[in-house]
Automatic annotation (TrEMBL):
It holds the Pfam family Na_Ca_ex. GO terms for biological process: calcium export from the mitochondrion; intracellular calcium ion homeostasis. This is NCLX protein. InterPro entries: CaCA_antiporter, NaCa_Exmemb, NCX_ion-bd_dom_sf. Its main location: membrane. One of its GO terms (cellular component) is membrane. The chain crosses the membrane at residues 55-78, 121-140, 152-170, 176-198, 219-238, 258-276, 288-307. Residues 1-23 are annotated as: Disordered. Keywords: Antiport, Calcium, Calcium transport, Ion transport, Membrane, Transmembrane, Transmembrane helix, Transport. One of its GO terms (molecular function) is calcium:sodium antiporter activity. It is a multi-pass membrane protein. Residues 155-305 form the Sodium/calcium exchanger membrane region domain. It comes from Alca torda.
Length: 316
């Protein structure tokens, strides 16, 4: 037989590497049952990928599987890049029941879930009843192959469920920080300046660094200031509004404390510094600007902590 040339070998090897998934695709099309679709959609493990990965990846994956399974059960995902928009009829019908139940049981640490209507019927029972009826109607009026016209509603439901998970995680994180503060006798201000601030910003830091390294420095720079503005305006505004509607009409920041003036002054000086220095450099920022910002943050953190621990204080 004739031996293939180098060009033919490269073409054949490229085709095989690109069409790896074809080996696992059935030759004849077949309709999967609803039970099969549900079990496949709820499986967070890819067995082919599991066999190829090293042992430490498998150990880390074993810890992630319970969390991923809970998220798959409660958060619907609409993917516009797929032909079927990630429509899984049995799983999406289950989401109609689990996502509202998640919202009720996680809002204010499950306080609303314990309420009873007329002192007899619990709220979570009403949510399960209404969700079961809606899930049954959707299951009867839809098919496994084609998503319904109202499939976009599941995207909003997924956003709401994701927000509830983030809210629950943030609540538990604050409780852990308060516990650490009680154990080590640290005030809420110190915890907010250090652990909570770092945990809240470290994700943005890595994402901004990644965008800058990939050639999008203006996007990273805008995200830095956009995140600060969002936290100040929406975070403080919404937090004060919720506090006013729940118990107190006034949120007091203790203006007599020196630390409050240090926080406000440091924030104002940093914004004024950027407001003056960035146009002065013709909006072409170098390493000196970044070094100055880092040194300014370290100086601010030292002064704030020394003030909180009464090393720096106003004389009587």
């Amino acid at each position: 037989p004739e031996m293939p040339t180098d060009t033919e070998e490269r073409e054949s090897s490229g085709t095989n590497s690109g069409d790896y998934g074809e080996e696992y695709r059935p030759l004849l099309p077949s309709r999967e049952t609803s039970l099969r679709i549900l079990t496949t959609a709820l499986s967070p493990l890819d067995y082919r990928k599991w066999r190829r990965k090293p042992w430490y990846w498998r150990v880390f994956k074993a810890f992630k599987v319970p969390v991923e399974l809970v998220l798959l059960l409660t958060v619907p995902v609409v993917d516009p890049d797929k032909d079927d928009l990630n429509w899984k009829r049995p799983l999406n019908c289950l989401h109609v029941l689990t996502s509202p139940l998640l919202c009720v049981l996680t809002l204010k640490s499950g306080t609303y879930g314990l309420y009873q209507i007329q002192g007899v019927f619990p709220v979570w029972g009403l949510i399960m009843l209404v969700g079961s009826v809606l899930a049954l109607i959707i299951f009867i009026t839809t098919s496994n192959e084609e998503p319904p016209k109202y499939h976009c509603v599941f995207a909003f439901l997924g956003f709401l469920a994701s927000a509830m998970w983030i809210n629950a995680a943030a609540t538990e994180l604050v409780n852990i920080l308060r516990t650490l503060g009680i154990i080590f006798q640290l005030s809420n201000t110190v915890l907010g300046l250090t652990l909570l601030a770092w945990g809240n910003s470290i994700g943005d830091t890595f994402s901004d660094l990644t965008m800058a390294r990939h050639g999008y420095p203006r996007m990273a720079f805008s995200a830095c200031f956009g995140g600060i503005i969002f936290n100040i305006l929406v975070g403080v505004g919404l937090g004060c509004l919720l506090q006013m509607t729940s118990s107190q009409l006034v949120v007091k920041l203790e203006p007599d404390s020196l630390l409050v003036w240090i926080l406000a002054g440091a924030l104002g000086l940093s914004l004024v510094f950027s407001f003056v220095s960035v146009p002065a450099q013709c909006f072409q920022l170098g390493k000196a600007y970044g070094v100055c910002l880092i040194l300014y943050y370290l100086a601010f953190l030292c002064v704030a902590l020394l003030t909180e621990f009464r090393v720096i204080r106003l004389s009587a």
